[in-house]
Specification:
heterodimer; A: alpha+beta; B: about 625 residues; alpha+beta; five-stranded antiparallel beta sheet; 9 helices; elongated
Amino acid sequence: MQEQQARLAQTQMQLATGMRLTTPADDPAAAVRILELKERIDTTNQYLDNTSLATARLQLEESTLSQVTSNLQRFRELVLQGNNDSNDHISRMAIAGEMRQLLDAMVGMANSRDANGEYVFAGTMTQTEPFAATAAGYTYSGDSQQHLVQISPQTQIADGDPGDAVFMNIPDGNGTFSVTATAGNSGSGVIDAGSVTDITAYVEDTYTITFLTADTYEVRDSALALVTSGAYTEGEAITFNGIETDITGEPAAGDTFTIEPSVNQSLMDTYQNLIDVMESAQFTPANTAEFHNAINHEFAALDQALEHIIQVRSPVGSRLNAADSQQTIQQDLVLGWQAALSEIQDLDWAEAISRFQIQNIALQAAQQSFASIQSLSLFNFLR
Amino acid sequence: MSVDLFGIGTSALLSFQRGLATTGHNIANVNTPGYSRQAVLFNNRNPFFAGDGYIGQGVEVTTVRRIFNQFVNDQVLVNNSVFNQHDTFRSLASVLDGLSAQDGTSLAPGMQGFFDAVQEVATSPADVATRQVMLSDSQTLVDRFHLLNGEYEHLANQVDNQLDAIVTDINSLSGAIADVNQQIREAGGAAHTPNDLLDHRDQLISQLSELVSVSTVEQDDGSLNVFIGSGQGLVVGVTANQLSVEALGSDPEQLDIALVTPSSTLRITDNIRGGSLGANLEFRDTTLTEARNELGRIAIGLAISFNQQHAQGIDLDGNVGGDYFVVAQPSVLDDPGNSTFGVSSIDVQFEDVSGLTAHDYQLDFDGATWTLTDLYTGATVPMTADGGDYLADGLRITPDPGAIAGDRYTIRPTRYGAADLELAITDPLQIAAALTHATDVGLDNTGGATISPVEVTDSSDAGFFTDLNIVFDNPPTTFSINGAPSQPYTDGADIDINGIRFQINGTPAAGDTFAITDNRGAVGDGSNALSLAQLQQSMMIGGGTQSLFGAYDQYVAAIGARTRQAEITADSQSIVLEQSIAQQQAVSGVNLDEEAANLQMFQQAYQAAAQIIAAADTVFNTLLSVTRR
């Protein structure tokens, strides 16, 4: 009877807690499995938390870059508009005014902060404002590191991009070389940004195109060796060493144009340079050519920047996708593990209740039979 | 002739009186524990030769016999000891088992919360609030270790108190047995056995067997010698030896059982088997000790590995990470008989966390060589010599220079691992979440070489935070750091400079550059915190086979399995005990129905015997009336 009572009490305990196991001794192997599953579920929930934070930051970066793109596109429109010869100085000053506002907005976006007050585009130096204007141009005070977030046992993703990769390391010119018209040119020749027609023939060097007369030119490299020379025809391309460039207008004798390898130029500096050019326009035929040359030179950098921002945005999108799909995977894993946990540790109610009934009846039977057997004794019959 | 009849009648009356008395005694003692039923042995008296035949002289009582079976009684004693041992062990083990089951005392939630907090810091390293949470979760984990360890110490104290109580019981029982031996010896005579005294003594021995395994040997004078352990005499004749509880070994807190004879005090802790005394000793010396050591091992594994990784990072103050946890020291006990006791001793340090076990060790010196024995397995542990020290099982042992042959030391590496674990940091800014240095591949590099993260080898180096610029020469088989003379390049080889170490892997091109810069100020870098968080999965202990959680899970399972084993054994032993008791009762127990029948039988016999007297009287009177004048 005592044994039956003990077993009945055990069943009662199970019914009261809803758990099949009350202590590890009830089923040591299952107890270990339960601990393992709980650990996995908890750790994965932490990964899911991490993923939410990373996703929020990436979305902030994405929306900021989207605004940067709109800003760039508007700026580009203004430059094209201002480049048009139908403008006078006053209208160009007005355009430059809007360009200034766009620059301020751009710098604000580059220095933007998240909900914690940390700078988004400062790399890992998130408490230092990254971009500042100096006399020598815009400087970057952050670093080049990416912050990684653990979103699954095997995967880490970057939750941002350092500011120098986004705004500073943009090649000027056409990405390979940039073309400059010397400031003192007296002719009206306007040179375009040029392009690389044959990358295998391209020799990286600084080249100078000098007009010996209004109709002849020669090209010399940095060692002053002659590369090519020819007669100038407006609209006809000048080609050498895989490089092709066009000059329109009428260059004067002594005018020079320089072709040099691309260097990195920050987006803000490109903006600032264009604003400076836009505000400085005077109106003589020579100065118009100078104006257009200057605009062309910086415009190439602007196009590079636009291309660059697109290239920066695309991995952000794919990281968001990766985080999203990883989140789904981890959530499914958690559900699976919770189901397994429930199977191991939760009580099978139907089985427990029917067991309880049987044990109850068995105990009652034992008690009743005990009562009737105990009363039998020979002494009852001896009078 | 009638005289004979009177004699016969009287003998019958007396004998049947004895029978009735004995039956009455049996009935009266039906509920007395340890009572063996008694039966009267009748024998017919020697006949009288009367020339024409042997005339019977009636009946006499030879003796009152005690009905018992020595073999069955001994079985009950043995089973009693075994059952009590397993039952006591089960109740002790289930306390341990219960501790690991409840979330309030289990270690797993504490560890999980701690590592989650580290993950949070890795995700938001510059956020001071997140760091504060990590510190408070760390303190919670430390408190959890202390709590569990405190419960184990409490349990150990309870066991020690139990030892005291049990030994007191044993001593009073052995005294009582000796007294009964005395009484039985005085009762003397092999012809008649002092049945009730024998029952009393058996009862005392049965109570004793619940406490400890005993064996008995009967002596010629009727006294019983009682032996415990591996043959140590507890009761010898009329002398009762006492047991005492005292610390006899190197550890003043470890209580031993000693047998106190008039001539000596003998330590018998290792010989005690069975009964609740055996169970308590076994529980304390195996299961509880293992549990404390294992908990300590987990604590030490966590603390040392975490500290090592923490020292690879820098904190928000720009300082290289210091110790995050205070690690316990291995416990060393000198044998009081050592020549250098109180003067000098060996020194034991943790060398390699993954080699640590949860066992205690004994180090012996024989004058020339040091031998290390694993006290749990009993096996000798091989030690490798390393500069004057010895390395074994994750420990570095520095021998005692003044030791002589026969000196002995007890080493308990992880015993206080959980008790002495503490948090060493109170300022959230001191959590080293960032790496000490940032590495960059030059933007204009044309080769495909990469640079590894920087590892700290010596943070006290004067040039530790110096920025390094690595430039590959033309041809790129050599490189120069900060303009220093060029050194040859080997793909993947360690480069050590200024207290840091890194590798460059792959094939660099001429002119390729790599930069290593001081990372102070990079408050948003959580790379070291990421590495700290990944320690949760790292297989850092058990020779590289167990993670922290894995070790804890196995430890819970081991306690659960041991408890389960004790439960099953206790259950089956209780059945065996019941069966042997039933057998004993079948032989020696009083059956009321049988006694009732005996009562009837003796009553009738007595009445019949009374009629014999009446008949003898009638015969005598007849004789008298014949000869009356």
